[in-house]
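Quick one - inputs below.
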Amino acid sequence: MTALAPEGTGAPGRARLAARTLRSDRWWLQPLITVSVLVAFIVYSTVRAFENANYFAEPYISPFYSPCITTACEGNTFPELFDGPAFLTPALYILIVPLGFRLTCYYYRKAYYRAFWLSPPACAVAEPHAKYTGETRFPLLFQNLHRYFFYAGLVFNVILTYDALLAFRNAEGEWFHMGLGTLVLLTNAVLLWLYSLSCHSCRHIVGGRLVHFSRHPVRYKAWTFVSKLNPKHMQYAWISLVFVAFTDLYVRLLATGAIDDPRFF
Amino acid sequence: MSYEANLRVWRGDADGGELQDFTVTVNEGEVVLDILHRLQATQTPDLAVRWNCKAGKCGSCSAEVNGRPRLMCLTRMGTFEPDESITITPLRAFPVVRDLVTDVSYNYDKAREMPPFVPPERDADGNHRMQQIDVERSQEFRKCIECFLCQDVCHVVRDHEDNKPAFAGPRYLMRLAELDMHPLDGVDRRRLAQDHFGLGMCNITKCCSEVCPEGIKITDNALIPMKERVVDRKYVPPTWLGNAIRRRRQ
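Output:
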């Protein structure tokens, strides 16, 4: 029990109840899980982004370092575009795109507004803030840039799919071979495509902005397809997040020699 | 099979009130509203509770059951354990009139502010024509029964009374989306949604969708598409730049 919030449910005229919430279920569990998984991912990805090693094991490259665009890169999966200062790892140049895409994603916004900012922590549970302006001001106004991160994310998806195709080679660079790592990179690329194509901005861009579907039958079909994926956006968001970290871990274990890649053919 | 349920019902008015404990008989298949009617009939004849259809279609019996906004006529007693104490309070986002009845006029004020549907001239035969696939998106939103559970649960006004003048709430932002998507509506409501009805205040935490008794995907199908339409209108860089220059000239 907490004191009445004068600005909220304790405002004059409303039913006088001191409880912040009368919910008797475990409403705190969902935000707790969200915080735990996201913090674990942030810690792991930050460590890996600064590690600057063990991200390439022929023919596999970690998605955290792809596209690898500097001359300092291991492997040869992408054109090396420039020299960078030694203290900046190749990952730091590119992670802004997936980070920005997920940070401005409509699903993740719900998740972290609830879990980190407690705004609100759960439905019908009072938030602790005295003032609320939502996404009307800087910096949250920038959430409206989501579609641009979506476009950039599509380019990354193409590159990561290309990485998965390159993984159909053996360590000598010969084609038509496959190992468990190929399957891991391929699954990672498929999950990232599912996450991107189920995006709310994607749904709007392919057809949602239209008023007359009947005049644009192809875009209507595209919108219908994305609308079928869209209700699973949350699931794709979590699965792809966990799997991208797993993919990186798999490549790291191969690169450090901790495990060997089982080869299928 | 019958059992005796423990009920905690908020009783009072705008000047104050408290949760009062009652023990009421529950029969198999009954809903919370049935139990309140039994309470009225046997112990508290002056208990104020608003209800009408008892079928989840009028939206009158909105209240909060164990802290969750719900229609009492759709909340089955079978979803609770027999020894569980069930707390029933009025909607906590609106001023209370008495007991479980609240003053929901905030919603009617917002409804009056909505610019009406503006259709084009009728065809020569006196009809309006539209394709089913053009109008079916909007039809989902027509299922709304105006129970105002989404308005009640939305933390923008529930936790911040001072936001009420600037924020229309999910029900009316959904109405804006409904009209904006309508093939025959002639008004551009995107700027209005952001600047006058507070769409930017929505942080899409989806509580409105969670409580909707009609199962309308308010956030995914109305609010987020409307936010994207506002981006088209206000935040695409050339549009944004043009607006900034226009404002400067004025």
